[in-house]
Q: What sequence folds into this?
């Protein structure tokens, strides 16, 4: 069964202090790996899709990378508005639409 | 379209009662998904529709749960004989034909509390 493990569970950063979030996954065949951002009381908001090892995607201060067993979400010079829970998810090959989410990393950026 | 709309936002019900939630997806999205999220956990897949056809169901979806998407537009999720363990945020999402490749657009969810 697909497994997604995210670390750390929580991360507290000073504004401007760059860091990375980790997502390790186990899947029989990877169709896609996704990153979402979730604010309290809201549904997840789509950030990136990565398809194959070596791929990178960027959006503002966020950069996602993918290897064969894990993905990293790098946050460069974060701002307080980047505070949220970041969720990683995988979809396996085989035509299934099910996406398996990790438990997320709760990021707090302090001014 | 302003996104995926879910109603109600909050529902408190007594154990044993039936509840129904509604989801209105983005109009051009033909794929619709239901997920459940409990505190501190990631969303868990419940079921998936392509147009009006329910094509996937999770083992989590017991016989007390039923979902419909008549005419491939809005969808409803009904829980019969609610239990305290059903308390969670129920999220609906929609997407274009390629599913997760373009990311899901999630609604803000319906928070169910069973007392």
A:
């Amino acid at each position: 069964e697909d497994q997604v493990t995210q670390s750390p569970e929580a991360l507290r950063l000073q504004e401007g202090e760059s860091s990375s979030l980790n997502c390790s996954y186990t899947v029989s065949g990877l169709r896609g790996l996704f990153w979402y951002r979730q604010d309290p009381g809201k549904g997840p908001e789509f950030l990136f899709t990565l398809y194959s090892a070596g791929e990178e995607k960027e959006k503002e201060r966020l950069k996602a990378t993918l290897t064969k067993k894990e993905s990293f979400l790098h946050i460069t010079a974060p701002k307080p508005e980047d505070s949220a829970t970041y969720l990683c998810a995988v979809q396996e090959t085989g035509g299934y639409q099910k996406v398996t989410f990790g438990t997320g990393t709760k990021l707090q950026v302090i001014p | 379209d302003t996104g995926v709309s879910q109603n109600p936002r909050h529902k408190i019900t007594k154990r044993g009662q039936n509840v129904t939630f509604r989801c209105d997806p983005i109009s051009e999205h033909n794929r619709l998904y239901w997920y459940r999220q409990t505190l501190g956990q990631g969303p868990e897949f419940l079921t998936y529709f392509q147009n009006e056809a329910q094509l996937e169901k999770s083992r989590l979806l017991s016989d007390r749960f039923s979902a419909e998407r008549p005419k491939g537009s809005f969808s409803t999720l009904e829980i019969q004989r609610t239990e305290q363990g059903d308390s969670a945020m129920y999220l609906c999402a929609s997407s274009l034909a390629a599913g997760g490749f373009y990311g899901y657009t999630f609604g803000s969810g319906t928070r169910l509390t069973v007392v």
